[in-house]
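Model it.
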Amino acid sequence: MHDYSAHADQVYASAQSAAASSSVVASWRRCMVMHRLAPEEKRLPMRLTSQEFQTALERSERLVAEAANELDRLFLAVGKAGCCLLLTDRNGIALERRGAVGDDKEFHDLGLWPGSVWTEASIGTNGIGTALADERAVAIFRDQHFFSSNINLSCTTAPIRDHRGQLAGALDISSCRDDVSDGTLAILSQTVRDAAVRIELNLFRSAFAGARFVMVPTDIASTSALLAVDRNDLVLGATRAARLALKLDDHRIAVGIPASDVLREQQGAAGEDLIEAERAALLRALSRANGNVSQAAAALGMSRSTLHRKMNRLNLH
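Modeled.
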């Protein structure tokens, strides 16, 4: 049996120390100083009214739609292990849930349910609230929670960012099982981070439907570093990983910058860009025509002899 009084004493002692020794202790201090919470207090997360919840759902309609398949896939992997999944918006409001029917009562009693608010201000240190506050993936293991009433809970959460790299929500896996170990939580943490990245990529692709996507080389070989590029090679958008790698922001993207420039591809002398553009256009036409010069010329709206002259000039024979 857990000693709830001892947990509250530990929170008070750690949070009141001269310096925060960890991100968890820093969160405990925020809960006490900023949010005026007491660890011995028994409380559930705040809940929205039906109308407020409907408004939150409508506000995050795209997030919910792009996350649905990933939530289903993730639940198939961890649902039988007694885990509950929550998708929240950037304000910690639980929008979607996946859980086994047999576990519903326990999670409902804890407030792990759509319409609940899992910010630090609402329910103290917890996976969702602390991940949103720190804007990074976190795992909160049992007595790392702020409230004594939540120390049976283990959760791991990853933030989700939108197509502009801004915080859009969070994805959480929670468990009340006694046999959850640090090792198990570490595996779940990687699983939830991977799922959050896939949701981010879904959001990015849907925001720039019809664009060409270019993977940005990074030091960590991140698959989430993508550029959305239009037919003129101008950057339309960039994921957060790409923005960090290439030092891009909304202003640089809005003014229009060629992908070849931000990727620092080798630039030719003045005038060579037009030549290379013409070469690329001819090569595309010839490829689409399977090398048939007459068909390629017709597609380009020029005579066969004109195309031959251009091919000779550009050494395309």
